[in-house]
Every structure is written in C-alpha cells, then in structure tokens.
C-alpha cells in the first residue's frame, strides 16, 4: 500500500513536470524567437532613436531590452551543467577583477561593456545550456531572419537605388556602399551573410522532407550574396568565401554542395573571361587591396603587447586605456581585429576564455556531424567563417554591440542548442515539445536543477 502510494506520488510529480515543461517551451516561450525579437527591437531602436548613443534615454531603453532577454530566458527550466557553472564563475570573477583594477571611471557605459558578456554567458551557457531546438524551430527561426533581411534589401532597392546605380558604374566603392537603413555597411553585410546561410539551411530542410518551394531559397540566397557584394564589405565577403569553400571541401555529395560548386565555378569562369568584371572585383569590391590602415593598427597593437609588463600581458590594459590610446594613434576606436582587441583589453587570460568559446563551438559541430553530417559540416563551416570574419573586424562574440550579439546568437548559441537536440534524437521531430521529462526534484549526476519562477 505504501509502495503504491509512493508510485502514485512519483507519477503525479512526473506528470506535473511534463505539463510545466510543455508550458515553458510553448510557441510563446520559444527562446530562439525571443533572441530574434531582441535583435529586431535593438536594431529598430538604434536606427530610429531620437537621441544619441549611450545617452540616458538610450541606456534606459537598452537596459529594458536586456531585462526582456533575462526574463525570457528565465522562463526556461533546465538543469545546470556543473562544468559550465564552474567556468562561468571563473569568467565572472575575472571580468569583475578587470573592471575594478583596470578602470578608473565606473560609468554605465563601462558597466555594460564588462558585465554584458558575464550576463550573456550565464543566460545562455549556464541557465539555458541544455535548451534544445528542433528542425521545425530552426526552420521558423531561419525564415524570420530571411524576412528581416528582405525588409533591409527592399529598403535599399527603394530608397538607395542611386547607390545601386553608382556601384554598378564601376567607378568607386567609397560613398556607394549599400547599408540599407543601418548605420554601417558592415553590419548590413553581416545580416545578409546570416540570411544567405539561413537560405541554405531552409533549402536542405525542404529537400530532406521532399517538400516544394525550395527554389525560392536559392533565389533569395543569390539576392543576398549580390547585396553583400554591393556593401563592399570585404570582411563579409571573406566570411562568405570561407563558408562556401569549407562546406564544399568537407560535405558529402548533396544538392547544396552541387549548387555551391556550380556557382563557384561559374563565377570563376565569368571573372576569367570578363576583364571588366575582373577589374570591378579587384578595384571596386576589393578596393584594390587597400587595407584601410589595418596592418598599421595591428602592428601598433602587437608592439603595445610586446612592450607591456608580464602582468599586463596576462590581464590586459582595460577597455578605456586601449581605446583612448588607439584613438590618439590612428583616430580609430578598434583594431579591426577581434583577437588583438581582446588580447590588449583582457590579456592572455581573457583571450583564453574567448578562444575557448570558439573551440567549444567547433566541438559542438563535430558532435552534430556524428548523427547529421549536413548540419555538422554547415555549423563547422560557419564557425571557421566566423573565425575568419573576426580577423579583419572587431565584431566580438559575447559583447553588447548589436552585430556582436547577432554573431554570438547565430554562430555560437544556435549550434549549441541544435547539438542538444541532435544528441538525444529530438532534432528531426516536427513538434513543439522541447524539454526532457525527467522529474524536477531529481538530481542528475554532474548537474544542478534550478526551478526559476515565472
């Protein structure tokens, strides 16, 4: 009798957890959708805000958006990984140390600079580290990105048509870069690159399901690539080239590979036989290999590192000092190289955390590859593309800038959550169910369950 009562209690508890987890991961609580909404709202605010950057109103709005992200994430009830929690604790203590030791002025801008990476790490690498995204979830997420990119492209076609005409006159790149309604052509190019990759995913997903409507994703991918070229962002073009080449080299024989190989060969043949287009690519798109002062800034950065004390080499010199010194030297606020930027700001220790996140993403890709070769190779190609992208740009993963946020969300967080679903065989399920059904009161080995309040 006592045994039956105990079993009844356990069954009731498990049933309650199933209900709770279904509720917390319903369509209204999809974390990837909240990541998308945060990006859209932040992009809209930064584009149309009636105030200056980092003003009081600007900071209040951005803090409100961050709180939206926090509350959205805390609606998810998951097990904490002890390993992730330990690494996060070390990272948080290190950033806290840098903030109080390296900085003299404790304004809100600096607080965001140092503590957004800490908050971001906790939300997505600790609290929601076990979150899972299915193929259906991915498909919807990718289509949301494609829709946003279409709005950006449509704005360029309607309101920046002169830029199109001037760019295609083969005269000069500077002053004719497409940027849509965004502040930077590089930011626009990054979103187009992410949109292009989203098209590849969607095409393959529909191919797997033998569904119609695949051709539109090829056409949209070509549209996004064409617009990337007209942004004249060599960083985005490098990222796209690395993505395509790595995917071709590593993937098995599939339709995406055939399309990319055909497109690459066709492009090379056209460039070989057309001197006009070849000149356009070299002199206009690639800007005649003009480095825009990058090599000089990189050399300056490495000189600063070599002349630093051992303590500065290990812990960096802080955001304020490095930014102000570089501004005096080159009138730029960043080195256009994420690795040098992190090395000088946060030191070798900070760079180790930074590189560790990238390595974890590579490992996630290989784990996915064991069960889904296309997904694994695509995510690995994306990671290598991201590594190349950050070589000539200061878009830093884990940072608060909108392009840095999107780089982290798409290239680091998304593969991690897909890996979680693939490993337990849930990725191919076209359902809204996402969480496991283990009882909330049970402690797993090497994990801690945290039941957050709604």
Describe the overall structure.
The protein has 454 residues and is an all-alpha fold. It folds into three domains: 25-73; 83-122 and 293-429, no CATH class; 131-289, no CATH class. The protein is built from 18 helices and two strands. It is globular, with a radius of gyration of 23 Å.
Quick rundown:
By secondary structure, this protein is mainly α. The protein is 72% helix and 2% strand. The chain is built from 18 helices and 2 strands.
Descriptive labels:
3 domains, about 450 residues, single chain, mainly alpha
Envelope shape: globular
Helical residue percent?
A: over 70%
What is the helix/strand order?
Answer: HHHEHHHHHHHHHHHHHHHE
Beta fraction: under 5%
Number of strands: 2
User: C-alpha Rg, in Å?
Assistant: 23 Å
- Nearest-integer average pLDDT: 84
Overall number of structural domains: 3
Number of helices: 18
Major sheet description = 2 strands, antiparallel
The computed structural class is mainly alpha
- Identify the strand order in the major beta sheet: 1-2
Give the end-to-end Cα distance, rounded to a whole number of Å: 36 Å
């Amino acid at each position: 009798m006592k045994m039956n009562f105990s079993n009844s209690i356990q069954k009731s508890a498990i049933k309650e957890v199933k209900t709770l987890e279904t509720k917390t991961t319903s369509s209204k609580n999809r974390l990837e959708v909240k990541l998308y909404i945060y990006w859209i709202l932040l992009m809209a605010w930064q584009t149309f805000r009636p105030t200056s950057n980092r003003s009081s109103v600007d900071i209040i709005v951005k803090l409100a958006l961050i709180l939206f992200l926090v509350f959205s994430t805390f609606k998810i009830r998951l097990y904490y990984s002890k390993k992730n929690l330990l690494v996060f604790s070390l990272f948080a203590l290190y950033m806290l140390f840098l903030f109080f030791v390296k900085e003299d002025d404790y304004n809100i801008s600096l607080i965001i600079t140092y503590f957004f990476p800490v908050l971001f790490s906790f939300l997505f690498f600790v609290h929601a580290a076990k979150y899972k995204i299915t193929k259906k979830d991915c498909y919807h997420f990718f289509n949301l990105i494609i829709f946003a990119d279409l709005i950006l492209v449509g704005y360029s076609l309607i309101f920046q048509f002169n830029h199109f005409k001037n760019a295609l006159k083969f005269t000069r790149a500077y002053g004719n870069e497409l940027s849509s309604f965004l502040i930077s052509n590089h930011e626009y190019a990054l979103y187009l690159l992410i949109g292009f990759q989203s098209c590849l995913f969607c095409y393959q997903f529909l191919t797997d399901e033998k569904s119609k409507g695949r051709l539109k994703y090829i056409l949209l991918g070509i549209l996004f690539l064409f617009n990337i070229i007209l942004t004249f962002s060599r960083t985005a073009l490098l990222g796209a080239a690395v993505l395509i080449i790595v995917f071709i080299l590593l993937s098995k024989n599939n339709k995406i590979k055939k399309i990319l190989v055909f497109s690459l060969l066709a492009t090379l043949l056209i460039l070989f036989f057309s001197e006009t287009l070849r000149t356009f690519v070299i002199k206009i798109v690639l800007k005649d290999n003009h480095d825009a002062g990058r090599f000089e800034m990189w050399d300056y950065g490495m000189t600063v590192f070599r002349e630093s004390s051992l303590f500065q080499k290990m812990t960096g010199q802080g955001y304020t000092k490095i930014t102000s010194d570089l501004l005096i030297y080159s009138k730029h606020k960043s080195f256009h190289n994420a690795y040098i930027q992190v090395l000088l700001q946060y030191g070798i220790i900070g760079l180790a955390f930074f590189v560790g996140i990238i390595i974890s993403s590579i490992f996630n890709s290989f784990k996915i590859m064991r069960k889904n070769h296309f997904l694994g190779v695509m995510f690995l190609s994306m990671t290598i593309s991201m590594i190349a992208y950050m070589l000539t740009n200061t878009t830093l993963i884990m940072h608060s800038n909108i392009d840095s946020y999107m780089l982290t969300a798409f290239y680091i967080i998304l593969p991690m959550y897909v890996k979680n679903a693939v490993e337990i065989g849930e990725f191919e399920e076209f359902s809204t169910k996402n969480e496991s059904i283990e009882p909330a009161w049970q402690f797993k080995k090497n994990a801690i369950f945290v039941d957050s309040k709604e």
